[in-house]
Amino acid sequence: MLDEEHAAPRGFTRPQTDANVYMWGRVGEQNTVIASLTSGVYGTTSTATTASSLLASLPSIRVGPFVGIGGGIARPDDDQGIRLGDVFVNQPFGTTGGVCQYDFIKAKSGDKRERKGFLGRPLTVLNALRRIQAYHKRKDSMGFDNDRLFKAPCDHIPGPDCRGCDMADEIQRDTRDTIDPDIHYGTIVSANTLAKDAAARDRIVADLDEDCICFEMEAAGLMNHFPCLVVRGICDYTDFYKNDRWQRYASATAAAYTKELLAYVPAAEVKETKRALEVLQLG
């Protein structure tokens, strides 16, 4: 991810409450710090803690993509659509920041619901989105044979793959001409619980009535803590057919996209950008 690694800046001290793990270095022209969530800890609460600690220790931080893995929302009628290993990026539109926190959806009349939370929009990184072009360094793909999409609802037989599952429920899709991951832009759904039920996934998407492309568990925790762009590598289809096979590859494709994105953020533009803390105070 980093072009160059180096030690923490001279004079850097952190509050005792900051438990983040930091990696320091440079990407292109940008001095960069990578803050990692505590291993094995997930959800919006831990993300909010990580972001708050980051800004307390490093108040000069200005921009920051939020990189990780997520579950895709595949549409069977779109033959060349989403595949495992693809990269999803939240695309702000209208008054939203491209991330909707499903936990904040408030019941209204009937079964329809109202969205109550959105992520702030980092203008410097959004400018880079308009400049970025698509060639990325990648790890080897897991291959089309290990990328299977099943009808909803149907039950997954536990195991490292889907050999014991009913193949009659598999959706047959045309293969792509290349194994290179695609980049998708749209609304990312964030919740504090793991989504692994295709029927529930489809109900949530219908409730939101948005062009939703991805489910994940952390981004909504940044809504009031850090304006950022969310980048997710897709490791499953938000259904029962989850395993760890695609997670490392999906992490790598998300990181590769982010590194390319940062190359389109001029250092001079970053210097002119308000610090994240100032943006939050103004908001």
UniProtKB/TrEMBL annotation:
<dbReference type="GO" id="GO:0003824">
    <property type="term" value="F:catalytic activity"/>
</dbReference>
<protein>
    <recommendedName>
        <fullName>Nucleoside phosphorylase domain-containing protein</fullName>
    </recommendedName>
</protein>
<dbReference type="InterPro" id="IPR035994">
    <property type="entry name" value="Nucleoside_phosphorylase_sf"/>
</dbReference>
<dbReference type="InterPro" id="IPR053137">
    <property type="entry name" value="NLR-like"/>
</dbReference>
<dbReference type="GO" id="GO:0009116">
    <property type="term" value="P:nucleoside metabolic process"/>
</dbReference>
